[in-house]
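Handout, section B. The chain below has 462 residues.
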Amino acid sequence: MLLAEQLVGEARARRARSMDARERTVVAVFAALYGVAALLIALLVPSERDVSLLLVLALLVGHAAVSQVRFEFGVGFVVPEQLVVVPMLLLLPLPYVPILIAAAGVLGLIPDFIKGSWAKDRWLKPIADSWSYLAPVLILAAFAPGAPELSSAPVYVLALAAQLGTDFAQTVIRNQLLDRVPIGELARGFVGATRVELVLSPVAFVATLAAFEAPIVLVAVIAPLVWLLDNFSRDRAARYAAALELNRAYRGTVMLLSDVLEFEDEYTAQHSRSVVDLVNAVADELGIAPDERQELEFAAMLHDVGKISIPKEILHKPSALTDREFEVIKHHTIEGQFMLDRVGGLLGRVGEVVRSCHERWDGRGYPDGLVGEETPIAARIVFACDAYNAMTTDRPYREAMPREAAIAELQSNTGTQFDPRIVSALVKVVEQGAPTTLAATDGVRAVLAGAPVAQSAGAAAS
């Protein structure tokens, strides 16, 4: 599953859960301060517009409806609310726009509460997130308080810039208090959302100008566009839902194979689980892209799944293997790929990695004799971590090696058996404190459940 799909799944699950104490406090404070600011604006800012109650109600309901048109991305979503916010700012009495926008946001969550896709204690969230509309109201009240006019376009541009700037500032503050997402990643997500607002704002402005004398024009222009965007958003949501469901099936298959492997050979299953967290820590050290991690984690978990087909008398032999027995053992990578190919899709790609998890850097590995970077990097990472974990745990025919001896063995085989860059990262991870005990079950179960594994060397377990 791609990182974007994983993040969307996590965001959906988070919205359905009640807020924790910290988030509840932050949201409540933001909402309370916004309520005070909106009330002061309603009391102190004069109104120069006189409109019908019907238009007020139409835009209120329209905003609530548009808030259901969500284009999910990463941890959040984009709503084409500018199509309604711009008419509200240009047509309605300015002192009451902040209150109306907040009310529309809460109203728009009612379908989510009914479906159970949002926790009911999140009703304050739309109010807490409405800060970006205060600055445009104040700017318009000061410089363009009357009917919308093309000559006031510079003021409208300034108001839009103030809205986006305030929105970004609030996003950064909330992130510092709650999420702690890296600022670069936060900025990239904000830029993506901003593009939508920059595209829709001129459309809404032109429609508002045309509808000033005949409000029905606004409905005729905006309603079909909202309907079209709603269809697109539903299609996007359905694709995410299908991808998430497919991924749940993959994770279930991996968990099932893990349980079967444990039933057949408890040591091999525990060893595979121990390799997963070590692999994650090494991948983190190497800067492996997040959207490549799931295949890597599954490959680490299932790299020995083919040993199910190996006779137990060979697998558990307490002495050195004969040449014939070793040839049987070597066949487990091909068997592992065959099993995963039958599942197909993501696990089919994982099977290709599993096949190559005993290829050597110098080309003397098996089953295909791949050389250097001909072997997938995921397989090279699993190979090195597998070897280190095997050396530092008890086997039927020998006791575990000390950590220092295992590191020395890795380094002595760098450039022949192992990729030098991966050995360097693995040694750094181990020297930073990765434990060598078989204690990765919780981390592996988190991977199989779809949760992100801790991406720090200190938290890794081999």
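Note. Confidence is low (pLDDT under 50) at residues 435-462. Compare this with the example in section A.
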